[in-house]
Amino acid sequence: MRYIVKYTEAIQKLLPTAKFGLSGNDENSIQITNWEDETLTQPTDAEIKAKITELETAYTNNAYQRKRANEYPELKDQLDKIYHSGIDEWKKVIKATKDKYPKWAVY
Predict the structure, then answer these.
(1) Collapsing DSSP states into helix, strand and coil, what is residue 34?
(2) CA distance 101 to 90
(3) Bridge-partner residues for 22, per DSSP?
(4) Which residues of the chain have pLDDT under 70?
(5) Is the sign of the CA dihedral 47, 53, 55, 61 positive or negative?
(6) From the DSSP assignment, how many helices (H) and strands (E) are in the chain?
(7) Torsional sign, CA 45, 50, 51, 52
(8) Residue 28 pLDDT
């Protein structure tokens, strides 16, 4: 089931306004069952799989962003820190999380 979601997302990224239906439940059996847009050319399986690979790579490469987002203080707490302690103290708090999850680390 997860692969059909990836397949759908890839088509939507390639052709955001496309209307289509899919069938199948794994990488080898999934196919476009009906292409409902006469103005757009249906993407090839190779184009869809290339887009899936691109999206998976982007997701993996942005792991640091998701990890940082989970650890940053809430915005109201950050603003409170700035107000009470100043920008330099706030920067220390943010830097600690950035240092913990560097942009170019492998996760």
Answers:
(1) strand
(2) 17
(3) 32
(4) 1, 105-107
(5) negative
(6) 5, 2
(7) positive
(8) 84
pLDDT tens for residues 58-83? 999 999 999 999 999 999 999 999 99
Q: At which residue do the structure tokens 């009470």 appear?
A: 84
Q: How far apart (Å, rounded) are the C-alpha atoms in residues 62 and 69? A: 11
Q: What is the pLDDT of residue 26?
A: 81
Question: How is residue 23 annotated by DSSP?
Answer: E
Report the predicted TM-score, pTM, of the whole model to 2 decimal places.
Answer: 0.73
Query: First and final CA of the chain: distance in angstroms?
Result: 25
List the structure tokens of 53. Answer: 């690979």
For helices 63-71 and 45-61, angle between their N-to-C axes, nearest 10 degrees: 40
Q: Considering all CA atoms of the chain, what is the largest pairwise distance in Å, rounded to the nearest integer?
A: 60
Residue recorded with tokens 């399986």: 45
Query: What is the length of the chain?
Result: 107
Task: Give the residue carrying structure tokens 């640091």.
Answer: 64
| Structure-token pair, residue 6 | 């990836």
